[in-house]
Design goal:
single chain; 106 residues; mainly beta; PH-domain like; five-stranded mixed β-sheet; 1 helix
Length: 106
């Protein structure tokens, strides 16, 4: 099943050398989640709603959704994302020492 982008021009996530950037309008960084602050990432599947206590930053339908859990956070410690290229996203996180698992979110 292919993913269907919903408003990726409005908001999305991007990887850079320091972490995951949450951007608006493709260029304006509203938050940088540093790799050191990522506790774990759980792949939750294509159709899962995720966790009730997570901030939903998904912007693609039928895409591989990931639940990022942070060590600390002022607003939420969990965020749901649907990266444009999930394989590349997971490899980058793994290369930076982030724990990746599959299965249901807690």
């Amino acid at each position: 099943m292919t993913s269907f982008p919903m408003l990726p021009w409005l908001y999305d996530i991007k990887l850079d050398a320091n972490g995951v950037r949450f951007v608006l309008f493709g260029f304006w960084t509203v938050h940088l989640l540093r790799f050191e602050n990522i506790k774990s990432v759980i792949e939750i599947g294509n159709l899962s709603l995720g966790a009730w206590n997570a901030y939903n930053f998904k912007n693609r339908l039928f895409a591989r959704a990931l639940l990022i859990e942070m060590h600390r956070g002022w607003f939420a410690r969990k965020v749901l994302v649907t990266p444009k290229n999930p394989n590349e996203f997971l490899v980058c996180l793994r290369d930076h020492g982030v724990v990746i698992s599959t299965g249901r979110a807690h």
